[in-house]
């Protein structure tokens, strides 16, 4: 009986300690790059805010267009009359009245509608910019987290190699075959590895929390990343990349839409010299109590008027000032557009050259890694034949690990530079969606 109780207690304790491990395993969640980007877009408050602003801009266009659509109003102007029938608004008092108005021709309002349509496109592009910003941020964090996790694995392997080197060196020092400085050198190498591990673990934690925040996950939820690489094109000419950026860059397109909006407004101000035309209609139901028979030869209860209201501008002191202001605003928009285009071409060229340098650096890092791997194989073969010792093997492993970390760093920098360039050329969404 006691034996059975002890076994039951052991099983209970084992289950107690195993439960947190199962919970931790359940909390880990694996994402591909596309899944991480899609999740960040769905959870992004910046994207939601940009969508709301785009909706506001679209509804503003509808409000502007409403003036050119039929507008019907009804109400009552019932009043007690003593003397001549009139109301403060100047129309005759009525039991029921119905008014109709529709603008047919108004150059300034037409220009304002077209300007609002252009600015709606500005907000649509602002939404695309918000989405691209989230995609760039989430993909960069995702790729860097993968790099940091891989580097951590390599550094932890280095820790083991450093431990074996340090033990081997101490043994030789105790035997009088090594100087004390060699022990210190091995200890220094081990301490540097520990420092690097701490730095990588800190960065891992920061990236983990950043991705969790972007995805709307609890901060303690562990995120596992896949090892898929981005399929990035690297064989385009610099001029082609610059031309595509000038055509598709979102900032530049926004500035072009704003320039067109101000151009429409200038045209509208210039055309205020032309008449405005409205279709109007009015129905009124009059009452005998308002003394109409005393002041008019004939009384009629139902009255209806329909026609066209034309306003012809003869002189407006404000028109010339409005035109001058619109010209200045258009000139400012055109200057801003030219400046942005020049700056964009310079920035794209600089980013393109940076990417070329990183591609060359990556090739060097790849060959250095390959050389280190082949050197390790040679040292291991020499160790099997007795031509090298354990320290030589472990140092070759450390060198291979260092070259791996260097290659990972360069590869991430290259991918990040490529993503930045794609963001400038407007192609980022095509790659990540």
What tags apply to this protein structure?
2 domains; alpha+beta; elongated; four-stranded antiparallel beta sheet; Outer membrane efflux proteins (OEP); two-stranded parallel ribbon; 71% helix; single chain; 433 residues
Structural write-up:
With 433 residues, the protein is of the alpha+beta class. The chain folds into two domains: 30-69 and 106-274 and 313-432, Outer membrane efflux proteins (OEP), CATH 1.20.1600; 71-105 and 276-312, no CATH class. The chain has helices at residues 2-27, 33-43, 45-65, 107-174, 180-215, 238-248, 250-270, 292-295, 317-385, 390-425, 428-432, and strands spanning 29-31, 71-75, 96-105, 223-225, 276-285, 302-311. It has a four-stranded antiparallel sheet with strand order 2-3-5-6, with no helix packed on it. Strands 1-4 form a two-stranded parallel ribbon.
Summarize this, please?
The protein is α+β, with helices and mostly antiparallel strands and 433 residues long.
């Amino acid at each position: 009986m006691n034996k059975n109780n002890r076994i039951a207690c052991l099983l209970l304790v084992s289950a107690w300690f195993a439960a947190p491990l199962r919970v931790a395993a359940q909390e880990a969640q694996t994402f591909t790059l596309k899944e991480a980007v899609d999740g960040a877009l769905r959870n992004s408050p910046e994207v939601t805010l940009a969508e709301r602003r785009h909706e506001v801009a679209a509804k503003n266009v509808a409000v502007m267009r409403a003036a050119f659509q039929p507008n019907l109003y009804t109400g009552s102007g019932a009043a007690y009359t003593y003397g001549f029938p009139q109301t403060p608004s100047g129309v005759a008092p009525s039991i029921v009245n119905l008014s109709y108005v529709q603008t047919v021709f108004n150059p300034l309002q037409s220009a304002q509608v077209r300007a609002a349509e252009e600015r709606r496109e500005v907000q649509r592009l602002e939404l695309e910019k918000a989405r691209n910003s989230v995609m760039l941020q989430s993909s960069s964090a995702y790729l860097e987290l993968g790099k940091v996790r891989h580097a951590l694995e390599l550094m932890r392997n280095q820790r083991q190699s450093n431990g074996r080197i340090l033990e081997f060196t101490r043994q030789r020092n105790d035997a009088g075959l090594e100087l004390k400085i060699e022990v210190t050198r091995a200890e220094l190498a081990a301490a540097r590895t520990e420092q690097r591990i701490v730095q990588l673990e800190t960065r891992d934690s920061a990236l983990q929390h950043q991705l969790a925040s972007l995805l709307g996950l609890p901060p303690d939820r562990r995120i596992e990343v896949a090892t898929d690489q981005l399929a990035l094109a690297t064989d385009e000419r610099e001029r082609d990349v610059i031309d595509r950026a000038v055509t598709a860059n979102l900032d530049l397109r926004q500035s072009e839409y704003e320039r067109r909006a101000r151009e429409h407004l200038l045209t509208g101000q210039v055309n205020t010299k032309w008449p405005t035309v409205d279709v109007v209609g009015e129905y009124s139901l009059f009452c005998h109590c308002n003394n109409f028979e005393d002041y008019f030869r004939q009384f009629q209860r139902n009255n209806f008027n329909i026609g066209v209201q034309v306003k012809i501008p003869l002189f407006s002191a404000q028109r010339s000032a409005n035109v001058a202001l619109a010209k200045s605003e258009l000139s400012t928009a055109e200057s801003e557009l030219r400046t942005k285009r020049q700056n964009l071409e310079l920035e794209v060229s600089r980013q393109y050259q940076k990417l070329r340098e990183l591609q060359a650096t990556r090739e060097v890092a790849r060959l250095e890694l390959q050389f280190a791997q082949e050197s390790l194989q040679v040292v291991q073969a020499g160790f099997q034949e007795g031509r090298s010792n354990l320290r030589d093997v472990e140092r070759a492993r450390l060198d291979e690990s260092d070259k791996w970390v260097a290659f990972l760093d360069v590869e991430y920098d290259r991918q990040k530079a490529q993503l930045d360039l794609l963001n400038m050329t407007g192609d980022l969404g095509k790659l990540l969606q």
